[in-house]
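hiii so my PI (J.) wants the whole complex modelled not just the main chain, which honestly fair. so below is everything: three entries, each one labled with what it is. i double checked the lines twice but i was tired so who knows lol
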Amino acid sequence: MGVKRRLRSRLWVTITTGALLAAACGSGDGDSGADVSAATTTSQQETEQPPATPTGVLRMTSTLYPLSLDPQRDTNFKGVWFYPMYDSLTMQNAEGEAEPWLATSWDRTDPLTWRFELRDDVTFHDGSAFDATVVKKNLERTKADKASPHAAVVAPITEVVVVDPNTVDVKFATPSPAFPLEMSNNPGMMVSGQAIDSGADLTRTPAGSGGWIWDASASVPQQSETYNANPNYWNADVVHVQQVVITHINDINARHNALEAGQVDVVDDGAIARKADLESDGFRSITFPVTMEGVIIMDRTGAIQPELADPKVREAISWLIDREGYLSAVHNGEGSDVAGLFPPGIKWHDPALDDIRDLDVEKAKTLLEEAGYPNGFTVRVGSYAALDQKLGALAQMLAPAGIKVEVVQVQSGVLAAEYRQGKWAIGYALPRQIHPFTQYQQYFNNAGTYNPFKATDTADLTAKVSEAAALDDDEAKPLWDEIQREAIERNILLPMGHTGLIAFLGKDVRGEPFLGGEQPSPHPHGLWIAGR
Amino acid sequence: MLKLLVMRVVAIIPLLFLVSVVAFGLNQVNPVDPAELLLGSQEATQEQIDAARQQLGLNEPVVQRYLDWLGGAVRGDLGNDVYTQEPITSAIRNRAPITLAMMAGALTVSLTVGLFCGILSALRAGRATDRALTVGASIGLALPSFWIGLILISLLAVNNRLLPAIWPPGQDLSLSLWLKSLIIPSLALGAAASASFTRQIRSAMIGVLQQDYIRTALAKGLPMRKVIFKHALKNAAVPIVTVIGFQVSTLLGGTVFLEIIYNIPGLGNWGVGAVLKNNSPVVIAFIMIAATLVVLVNLFLDVIYGWLNPKVRT
Amino acid sequence: MATPLIAAESSSLTDQELGAVGGMSGRKRFTRRFLRNKVAMAGASFVLLLVVVATFAPLIAPYDPNVTTGGLRSAFQRPSGEHWFGTDGTGLDQFSRVVYGTRLALVAGLEAVAVSLVIGLPIGLAVGYFGGWADRLTMRVVEAVVAVPTTMMAMAIIAATGPGIQKAMFAVGLVYAMAIIRLARAEVLGARAELYVDGARAAGASDNRIMWRHILPNVAPALIVQSTLLLAASVLIEAGLSLLGLGAGSGQVSWGVMLRSASQVIDRDWFQPWPAGIALFLTVLALNAVGDGLRDAFAREARGGRLGVGQVARPVVVEPERTALAPRPGALVAVRDLTVTFPRPSGGEVAVVQHVSFDIMPGEILALVGESGSGKSITALALLGLVPDPGRVTASSITLAGRDLVGLPFKEMRKIRGRDIGVVFQEPSASLNPAYTIGDQVSEPLRTHLGMSRKAARARTVELLELVGIPQAARRLDDYPHQYSGGMAQRVMIAMALACEPKLLIADEPTTALDVTVQGQVLDLLLGLRDEFGMSILLITHDLGVVADVADRGAVMYAGQIIETGPLADVFRSPRHPYTEGLMVAVPRNERRVGTLPTIPGVVPPPWEWPESCHFAPRCRYAAELCRAGPVPLVLDDLGRGHRCVRADELTLRGVDEREAAVAELAEPIEVTG
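here's the output for the full assembly
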């Protein structure tokens, strides 16, 4: 009976006009992404053994296609296209911490220097060897590229010093505690020194050292990329499939159809509502639970929205956020509704902050009255298709206190620029940072991108942040908890929920997936196809 | 006749020039900044954006950029995709065959269905069959093609694995797989056009069937099939041919949605994506393809028209 | 759906004539046609409902469409008594949103149509009227814009101007303006050639005035239809653009926005897109139905195919007419009790041909005479089994050379048509298929009935064309009908009818469309051929001059009945029916008369007004009480002389000499009706 019901409900979903039109939306913008740090798999214990030599084809999907196959020229969200052919210095684990990959270990020799010990058995696909000089060349290359999406990561680097062939020191102008973690993403992906020296354009000629080698003849730009197993890989234990084919499928229904029709084996960024159905049919799911969604109050000076200059008004808004309701309405109840800036399961989660804010309409009304706005006010917020339901929910949350949120349609490609230009007093924010330092720098630091109105309300926290940044993560934790509390109480970024993305694996995909990185898809490493 | 054809082809050139100016102009006023999208994040700094704009050549004067583009276009180089730097010409080579095949498939489907249902409907005008077909055609016109596409995918590909559920990735598809993959999109795309053709053919046939020469044909004692398929159809085809011209641009528009739901690496989705992302070289190329296609189709139809309607010829 | 109008006289009874007969104005006729179209009426009612719902949305909607009652926690509720269509992903009442959504759908659709008319109409009228380089340039631009799919063009404009429903619909209107320009221009080009424009210009009207006052009203029907269809398309496009985030904002209540938010949560709640989706679907369906209905109502021609030819049946009840006599001995054709009925749109049926009986001897020419609407042409079609659907033909017998044709299926009848019975129709140019060569068309009966090879048929065709007097026949074989003059085309028709040397030739007004000198030639040709082949001819005409010239016997039809028949000389010289007298007295006049007969007031009434009793009584100056008492049978004597007048024996009627008539005819064509 269960199967029948599922089939029927599936058909309903399909026939339903919205799906179609949903398809038409084809979001296509990169900022719907999510951080991938902690991950949980629902796999039952695999008892099967992987094939002795790489066998078969693993067919994966990606919501967005890579604009360039140069890892420094595209965003972390599209990491899935790069991991087969490039190795990163570190690899992120389920708790959001860095683990060894090309780098075997790292530590801070002083607060401004990260020292990485490197593997000595890595060879690039072009035959050149990997060593400390290559790391230096890579970081310097990225730093020189002002148009790289990763410019911010390497901006504070002052110097890269080759200590010995397998040891490299990266020196910074300001403490960068999250740097090893960043090295698990695109900025940490190592390009062959030979390719860098030749000054080659890497857009369609990758030069990595990864477990699979890109196959130019079988790849079509903007459609699909094909990679063949690297016979000389240093970590052959995790390369089980002979070929990896990644196909760009923008539409979520198309991705699911392809998975269920057996045309692909791994689907990224799936529909969370389909989880139960698919699992009972024998598919596996992987959830990536860390992405915060929040409201950022940018106009804290009252330049275009005078009411927001009053801290009481901002606090009133913070008491109106119904995180549980938001998650239930927008995310089918999935995710974490803690008030803090990091959810449980992440190192930086502080249970003491879980209830620091909660839905309290009366309190909000009182605050607004005190601020002189007993009848509320109207505030405009820019939106595009992918944000509509989220901002619609925000409008409903603020309505009971008389704050009317006017959702204004803008083109998806211009909203970020308009935020920077100070056209909007409040906005939707999607912090993906897994480390409190980077998150603070981006969203709370008065020098960050989200301060178009030049507010100076966190200047007093700078010293404490610098202090925490200079410490090792374990030592810094209590300090970061304090900073988080301070940040929350200033009502700058108001979390609406901590949510995640989901990926699905086909019925005959075996092996434990590697997760790491900010892309909503597992790596091809460690996976194989049963019976192929 | 040949001279006329050559004239018509030559006439496309100023049209394309006009199109390129308009398309370039539209792109200039488009507020979307490709540099912004290239960086793909709300967290990009102004410096990053400026550097990206510099690299994309967006800081050069508009006229200069247009002339650069035009200079290349004259030599057959339509420029590169702003985002991926993929040469436009190679993108067209990859994408055009699929979209054109899909449109051809849809036209075949819709003309076949349209002829069958339209003629049947006209012959049974006013009776139950006709009413059913007319209502069916109205519904067919009001149903979006992607909706039909999704149902077909669900039934034929997901629930029963008879056909692919998405366009199979990769470059070298076997012919049989290629044709198999065309079935669902052609059917879905052809559905609305079928409805439209059914209506057009019905009304054209009804008009023709009332003509005196049909009475003459009957009075001559010709068998029914000759009366319908010889005497009526050729005359009824005259207005239909004009309609096909309009359908081509409609079909091209319709491919967009099907390309999305069936993940087809074709022209439609490419063009729409480019419009939304202000990918000007792609937008211009797409509009030019559309214009050329429609003009060429109309040219071809003019030839057919001449064959159908002897009065035009002399 | 199409309710076929009555196709009386060879289905040439147009709506205009029907209207004239019924005394209706054009608008009234239009309204009546539209009201009769059930589908269009259903569509119109739905659109009206939408307007009402949009106007009174606050009264109808139970909730505020933008504010939830229970906050976010009331999201995703399934339909219930409280929320008829459930709630959406933020807890808003879907029913209220559908209700309020009608406002935006209608306003947005109207905006696009208004923009397209305001921009497209003046430009289209102007370039069509003045022509020249502005016209060429405009059409170039229109061509370019039309080449790009509408949605894409609108998207490009919106991408440049930014999203927003007003801007989006303006963009759509701009694209649609191209269609309006095309349409208006084409209509103007057509109208410019019409006489009324020249007339207006001669009367000194300014270009502006001619354009807006004289041309626009003629362009209006096409524009109204087009606007309705564009309205439907606009509503759909509004939803599509809003769905893509290019139209209405999520703060606005639109069906497109509803679909968009539903599409975001489709995996959780399959029901959500349905209310807005169905509202949209029905609206588009309804608007299209109205558009189609308007188009049909404006269209002049009656709908319905001609090909539904039914076989001739025997009457269910054989009414005892005294004419049900045995045929004259040796008759080639004998028709008894031929009746043709058509259903009336208002129900019931009407007999347009009633109990027609006649014989034709081998080699004899029988003239069937009567005004338009008397049923003579339909009688001929009935003989051939070609009465258009939905007409019904019954006869107690139709024999051709002893073979009864009643009840023969299409397959059998078709072997007789073209082979045993040849036909020449009234309009030679319209009766030839413009898409095929003359040679092809004339050889068709040869190949079909005689099984000739292509080559043999071609050779025979040349002979036939030479026979009917077409000069250089071999060279003109591959010409198309439009390259032939009317007289030549009629000769072609005759050649085609004679191809298989039929026993009976039906000539339906064979000379009416031709000029006088050609008329004479064609008639001479027919007579000559009759003598050569020995065939019989059923000559149908309203032209007494023609009849007098060639016919052996005459049968006068009035209002579906043969009211007098007999040898031609008898009928001419001593008519027994007052109607025949009226016809005859009308003959020797020198002026061309169109319309009514001077001696008989009025016109033939439409079939549904024919009385049960004497059909002619209402117009008859001799009519008495007795005439209106009951049906009048045809009284026939042994010589085949007969009439349908109860007072025939008391009246002395005036006649004319048939030679007199023929002489008068040669001097001036005589028309007994228009």
